[in-house]
Write a structure and sequence with these properties.
This is Glycosyltransferase. The protein is α/β, with parallel strands linked by helices. The chain is built from 15 helices and ten strands. Helix 10 runs antiparallel to helix 11 and helix 11 crosses helix 12. The longest helix has 21 residues. The chain is globular.
Length: 370
């Protein structure tokens, strides 16, 4: 059997796949046809025979791919990703969804940044559907070429460890995906890395392209609230989180509220869902974020704070809770632009600066190409 890693290639790209119906062949091709000089391909067949997954890969690519089998009781991709990352000897590793692709030259761009800066984690630029449709997160500081800072560069809004990771760093830190987590199994890991190891954002490099043609992503399923936000304790109660400076904890808390808590409410637009038990769970989880990350609510818009008030108070009616979740997405109104505390209007996480930075991140690669 061939060795898992080619000794002359510095990166293992690990692709997890649980069904041959996923476009895993396209994912493999994006590595072997545009990034093969620097990357090995490791495909992990999750609860399926390796031959089934291998059959979905183009015939001309099959002998250039290593297939591993991983079996567990979960639908989560965390298990197969962890299994793939544990194997191999290449000094760097990256993970990749089976319905995603890498633009040509992406791995070379990561390696060049790593060599220049000594970063142990290189965050890739993201695009949605096509390479030209950039995703404006993280909303980093403009025109910076050095290492990034979690709070100052709003890194917490990146929720998956996509990009280049040092295998030695993973062994040293013990960072890993939470196995069995149906939602958010990658959030704790990526946040830990961005907060605690030298990290850089590849703002101008070829992107990692998120596929839009998979209809069975488990992330999109509505689940019980304590399961939907079940990754919060592993993050908020971790020793590494408690040891962070207050600005970093506050930045992470703001993101948890803005993206995960408020998103969980927005996608539950049925009053029948909001039983007393669900409302109590939402209130407890929201209050725990405020306790672990004091002040994280201060930069939020007035509309966001109205929703947060409803999350914290189970006595507020479900109709008002759901309306607040809809209203915070009606962008451009004063309630969505201005924080409740006017002294926070120029805060890094407040809407004016956050929106401006997001726009700049989206536009800068186009300016660079021009």
């Amino acid at each position: 059997m061939r060795p898992l890693s080619s000794p002359d290639k510095p990166v293992d790209v690990v692709i997890a796949c649980h069904t041959p119906e996923r476009p895993v062949g396209r994912a493999v091709a994006s590595i072997l046809e545009g990034n093969a000089e620097h990357a090995n391909v490791v495909v992990v067949a999750h609860n399926r025979p390796a031959d089934e997954i291998l059959g979905a890969i183009r015939p001309e690519h099959r002998d250039r791919v290593r297939i591993l089998e991983h079996r567990d009781e979960f639908r989560s991709a965390s298990g197969p990703f962890n299994a793939g990352m544990r194997e191999g000897t290449a000094p760097f590793v990256a993970i990749m969804g089976s319905d995603d692709t890498l633009a040509p030259g992406a791995v070379a761009s990561w390696l060049a940044l790593q060599e220049r800066t000594g970063a142990e984690f290189v965050i890739t630029r993201l695009a949605l559907g096509t390479a030209g449709h950039g995703v404006p997160t993280p909303a980093t500081r403009m025109l910076r070429g050095g290492l990034a800072d979690l709070a100052r560069d709003r890194l917490a809004y990146r929720s998956a460890p996509l990009g280049l990771m040092s295998r030695a760093m993973l062994a040293r830190t013990g960072a890993h995906l939470v196995e069995g987590a149906t939602v958010g199994g990658d959030v704790g890991m990526v946040t830990q890395l961005m907060a605690t190891v030298p990290t850089i954002y590849d703002r101008f490099g070829p992107p990692y392209v998120i596929g839009e043609d998979a209809g069975d992503r488990v992330t999109y399923v509505i689940r019980p609230m304590r399961e939907q936000l079940g990754f919060f304790p592993d993050l908020l109660e971790a020793d590494w989180f408690a040891s962070l400076p207050r600005p970093a904890r506050r930045a992470i808390g703001t993101k948890l509220l803005r993206i995960h808590v408020f998103g969980a409410v927005f996608y539950r637009q049925d009053a029948g869902i909001w039983t007393h038990e669900v409302r109590e769970a939402l209130a407890e989880i929201s209050a725990e974020v405020l306790r672990r990350a004091p002040g994280c609510e201060r930069p939020l818009s007035r509309a966001d704070r109205r929703l947060l008030d409803a999350c914290l108070d189970p006595g507020i009616g479900a109709d008002e809770l759901m309306a607040a979740a809809r209203d915070r997405r009606r962008h451009g109104r004063p309630a969505t632009l201005l924080p409740r505390e006017i002294t926070q209007v120029l805060a890094r996480e407040a809407p004016p600066r956050f929106m401006a930075a997001s726009l700049a991140v989206q536009m800068l690669p186009r300016v660079r190409r021009g």
